[in-house]
Amino acid sequence: MFDTISADRYAQKHSSYFEVYDRYLDKFRGKRPTVVEIGVQHGGSLLIWERFFDGDVDIVGLDILADCRKFAGGNVRIFIGDQSDPAFLDDVIAAVGQADIIIDDGSHIPYHQIKTFEVLFYKLLKDGGVYICEDCHTSYWPRYGGGLRKKGTFIEYAKRLCDQQNAWSSESRNLVVDAATRSIKSIAFYYSIVVFEKAAVEEPQLVEAGSAKLDLESAFKASGLARLILPLKRSATVQRLVRTNPVLWRLMRRFLNANQG
After folding, report:
1. Which domain covers residue 35, as residue numbers?
2. Is 128 left (phi over 0), alpha (psi -120 to 50) or beta?
3. In a domain, 204, yes or no
4. Nearest CA to 118 among 91, 154, 149?
5. 241 and 150 inside one domain
6. CA gap 163, 176 in Å, rounded
7. Are residues 81 and 191 in the same domain?
8. Which ranges of the chain have pLDDT less than 70?
9. H or E stretch including 45?
């Protein structure tokens, strides 16, 4: 795919990206998806998507450089503006409607990536769609405002969204169900790239089957100290202490070994 683009349009991609494209975008082949790509620059990537979908695709390119308008035509639309400007992104949404695929290959500035995601993922991407943020290695580059585990980078932002995915089970007032919890089906991290799948996510329910169960308290009941131990075992505080303290866990394990038949 990469080798077949026109030689007069420059494009640059990390070699590891192509497996990601195949894994997440193959399902859209033959369905004429709408692809929104932030970052047109030399126009080569527009041809990549043209080839990937065998021309059966509508492509929307966003770039800050006015010269990129020359790549518009046929199934390609170009919008000129700053990806960190919510008003510009809202104009794009109004014009495009919905997208199946969004690829952020724009400025690579972490706070731009975050602002763009927060608008386009929720307001432009369809359920069932895929959002790809590329060149996330800039989250580690000081010259882009990045750094290892530095707050405000896209990588750290995406890690936080992993927490939001699991907010259904949170016992903290600092982690509650929100729009991310209800719309991010999956997050996948690859070298320098983060992929999000969007769907309407409902609160997961526990599913049970069968009726035969073990008596999980039999070892405790067998002890001569059952009257003392059973109430302690059922205490949430004691459960937490045993689960989080390796010494107490080993003591509990020895107790079980000594009292099981």
Report:
1. 2-198
2. left
3. no
4. 154
5. no
6. 10
7. yes
8. 1-8, 261
9. helix 44-52
